Predict the 3D structure of the following.
Amino acid sequence: MKKGMSRRDFLQQSAVGIAAASSLGSVAMSQSAMPKRALGKTGLEVTILSFGAGSQFLKNKNGVWEPMLQKAYDAGIRLFDSSYGYTPALFNQKEGSALSSEERLGEVLGPYRKSVIISTKIEVKSRNVAEGMKEFETSLKRLKTDYLDILLVHSIEANEDVPALCSGLYKELGKLKEAGTVKFIGFSSMNSAEKSKAMLEAAPVDVCILAMNATQYGKFAAVALPTAREKNVGVIAMKAMRNVVDKSSPAECLNYVWSQPGVATAVVGHVGMTNLEQNIQLALTHKAQTQAQQRDLENRMAPLAGPHALVWARPDYRDGMMC
């Protein structure tokens, strides 16, 4: 990106070149080509591949991440997931030295606001209502929007006090939904399928993001997913590839989660345009795995089910960390 050129000008001037250079071709890039599914009872329709704007996305330097967002949009991806806590601090950078994930989305997706689904999360670990609402207001400013499509409580933990959360911070999210500032509410979790199930049973959940891959670590597909299906909650799978893709293949990893009944989409973070293009192609050519194929993959991946292999399963990990 040339010095002095705004990101919007950069995107406008380079859009034609980006599309021409794409290895996917114009037919594959058609918005109607990628399989779509209903996001539970929300009435939203999403492509099976969604854009994760977490720590992996933040690794992309200026001049790289801008066309990646444009590429995702051009491919038909409409759900972009972020969080208040996805900031340069993850990389030990000072605030202001680089844009946060939410700010990046706000820079590029502004012109498409009415046609994209923006999901972000409240981070506050204490679940304090006042602090959570401050985060929400900051997120709106960063994203350059006056409403959110999806607002989630980030990272339901094994020690989560579900009744307290439901009567406190989550109740406040419900008020935002009633006011129309937020369309749909829910939570994310990669640490406790049991507490995720409890949230699904106790709270009015529209959308949830659950950790799910062929290692079966955390047992989200077995414990929480059936309840989500029963209640017609929109399920977004995360961690489908993190720390496991080198032991199988991107196609196996993604097709596995896409083949789980009730999963609407997989949210994936990408480092570099090549990885994004490859995963778009996998979405375009997705074929459901048979139960036999799933069991075979689970058996091969089972030795990786734990903190020894999964960085995000370690006790000191917080979703979005750069490791």
Remarks:
- Residues 47-313 form a domain with the TIM Barrel fold (CATH 3.20.20.100).
- Strands lie at 36-38, 45-47, 49-52, 79-81, 117-122, 148-153, 182-189, 207-211, 234-238, 263-269.
